[in-house]
Known about the structure:
alpha/beta
Amino acid sequence: MNDIMLEVRDLTKHFPVSGSKRQVVHAVDGVSFQVPRGKTLGLVGESGCGKSSCARTIIRIYDPTSGQIILDGQDITHLTQRQLIPLRRNIQMIFQDPYASLNARMTVRDIIEEPLRAHKVCATAREADELIYEMLDRVGLSKEHANRYAHEFSGGQRQRVGIARALILHPKVVICDEPISALDVSIQAQVVNLLKQFQEEQGLTYLFIAHDLSMVRYVSDEVGVMYLGKLVELCEANEIYDHPLHPYTQGLLAAIPIPDPQLARAKTASSIEGDIPSPISPPSGCRFHTRCPRATPLCSQVEPVMADVGGGHRVACHLFSQCTP
Ligand code: SF4
């Protein structure tokens, strides 16, 4: 059995800019990571940093520009959409917006049954019903919800339906693309706990995408931080909170709201200023140099490479050894 369930090597995805023959959007640029079987990698960064493009390229909604995607030991990078069909039941996605991702004209039963039908899992409608009702029960809904429409549910309930649809095929890998961002804070923990419960019961492997570091700690074994298409730091989850090395990671952590006003004031001093630059023409050298409080002349000229600074903690920064907060 392969211990690494999902691996991407030097994954790159560029999108053409409409009306231009030469310009491209550098959505994902040379990203590499591994997710062990049954574990969770949290992928974090501001909007526009490339994390969702990375997820959609891994699941082959987008074709990669270059690099490799390896799912449970099988290289799926160049498989055709037809060849991917049987593999799709092994890798599923939970989407960010439970309002937009569920078809308003379908009942909950039909929504959850769709993947069962696509993969011809059940021989009879009765068999499908049994699986659907069991799954509704497992996500905290009931048989009575099956004939209702998505618009009749709250955001948290809709995300439970999205989880039921993604997990009914017992996939090996689930890509959770900001699954809690659109939900009330009070509901976020419930959805996270539900995902964790499924992981324990089924040994699922998660790639969990989020735009801030606050909730990721509770779901992730490792956390990767992306900035403008690049992975800039990757390490064990507690390590990234206790010893963040990259100035961008430090800025993201400083942006997490904290209830103590004195501590909050101290943290604001190191939060990130300015907007993320255009991914069509990313800055030279280190892409973060236009916003980095510690940038030196070298940073705009030479791109830092990802280096292991010990214990599997990897960071791409010329000054990483001096960047402790
Ligand atoms: Fe900042 Fe330079 Fe490190 Fe980039 S390489 S994060 S600009 S110090």
